[in-house]
Design brief:
The protein contains 10 helices and 13 strands. With about 325 residues, the protein is α/β, with parallel strands linked by helices. The protein folds into 2 domains: about 5-170, Peroxisomal Thiolase, Chain A, domain 1 (3-Layer(aba) Sandwich), CATH 3.40.47.10; about 180-329, Thiolase/Chalcone synthase (Peroxisomal Thiolase, Chain A, domain 1). Bound molecules: acetyl coenzyme *A.
């Protein structure tokens, strides 16, 4: 059986770093409320002219260099994002394909909101293992601050901008490194709890239309919170059971970073020490599908991931979607 692995990974966040205290100057909130309810201290915010592909470009170039491949060897680019450069088309993957000179690559965007990286990793794994591709560039890039309603304190404190890129390749040396198994799930009946109403074919934004504000993220925080804790627990349990692993066999769980309290509640319910979960939400807030590749990139930088380690990624998001990957790093 062929193996697919994450050969290279990198990330980038915008330079502008905004603290809770700075945010509290323009919104009725406080550092105390935000930190105690979410674990967030800072978020990074892109400049007005920056689009998702702009932020993603450097991490893409990094992984091409790290993996020492020619962009012409990339077979497919998948961009998991809810803040595409353009609505619908052209895909952000096509924009990047051109900018990278990846002339032999197919290009597509994948819409699974915050679960996007998990979904795209499974897609890449399947295409590599069945022989359809050898090198797939996975990108998750989000400029959420442009679809954030800065007058809504229920949501605006939660989000930030960031991008992660990874090259998923055929493991030609047949080492242990492999993407072993994924769970991809959805509960479409929860769609209204996390939604951007306008901008699509249901509610197109037209000049002078009344619904301009509906182009922002709308969320029922409590509903999403309960869904998140439930599916994180279910997914981690199912992954461990499927491979007959105990939590001691896992080096790290890398969860989607939406709220530290969601991660703590799942850890408590599963009786897993919180130290098993890699957490960096304090620095970046929720960057949707980019949280997991940013976390993985940071962990590699810190020397926390060794080849052969087992790790679990797990996440949830708009859709509602959820899922996880078991990776032998
Ligand atoms: N500052 C100060 N007070 C606030 C703020 C704020 N930023 N936001 C809300 N409050 C107030 C509310 O108005 C409410 O006041 P009230 O009791 O007078 O009405 C009070 O705080 C409590 O509000 P709750 O909504 O009950 O607060 P909760 O403890 O549930 O925390 C939160 C809210 C942080 C949003 C939580 O529900 C949560 O994390 N939910 C999950 C969010 C999530 O994971 N979203 C994923 C989005 S990913 C994507 O796909 C883009």
């Amino acid at each position: 059986m062929k193996k697919a692995f994450i050969k290279a990974i990198s990330y980038k966040v915008p330079e502008k770093r905004v603290s809770n205290d700075e945010l509290a100057k323009t919104v009725d909130t406080s550092d105390e409320w935000i930190y105690s309810h979410t674990g967030i201290k800072y978020r990074h915010i892109a400049e007005e002219q920056t689009a998702a592909s702009d932020l993603a470009l450097q991490p893409c170039l990094d992984v091409i260099e790290q993996a020492d491949i020619d962009p012409k060897e990339i077979d497919l680019i998948i961009v998991a994002t809810i803040t595409q450069d353009y609505v619908g088309f052209p895909s952000t993957a096509c924009v990047l394909q051109d900018r990278l000179g990846a002339v032999n690559a197919g290009a597509m965007d994948l819409a699974a909101a915050c679960t996007g990286y998990i979904y795209s990793l499974e897609t890449a794994k399947a295409l590599i293992k069945t022989g359809s591709a050898k090198n797939i560039l996975l990108v998750s890039s989000e400029i959420l601050t442009k679809i954030t309603d800065w007058t809504d304190r229920n949501t605006c404190v939660l989000f930030g901008d960031g991008a992660g890129a990874s090259l998923v390749s055929l493991n030609e040396e047949n080492t242990e490194s492999d993407i072993l198994f994924s769970i991809l799930g959805a509960e479409g009946n929860g769609a209204p709890y996390l939604i951007r109403m306008a901008g699509g074919s249901r509610y197109p934004i037209r000049p002078h239309s009344e619904n301009r504000k509906d182009g922002y993220i709308r969320m029922d925080g409590q509903k999403v919170y309960h869904f998140a804790v439930r599916v994180l627990c279910k997914t981690i349990k199912r992954i461990l059971e499927k491979y007959n692993l105990s939590i001691d066999d896992i080096a790290y769980i890398v969860p989607h970073q939406a709220n530290i309290r969601i991660i703590e509640a799942a850890a408590k319910r599963l009786k897993i020490p919180i130290e098993k979960f890699y957490v960096n939400i304090q620095e970046y807030a929720n960057t949707s599908g980019a949280t997991i590749p940013i976390a993985l990139g940071e962990m590699v930088e810190k020397g926390l991931l060794r080849r052969g380690d087992y790790i679990i990624t797990v996440g949830f998001g708009g859709g509602l979607t959820y899922g996880g990957n078991l990776i032998c790093w």
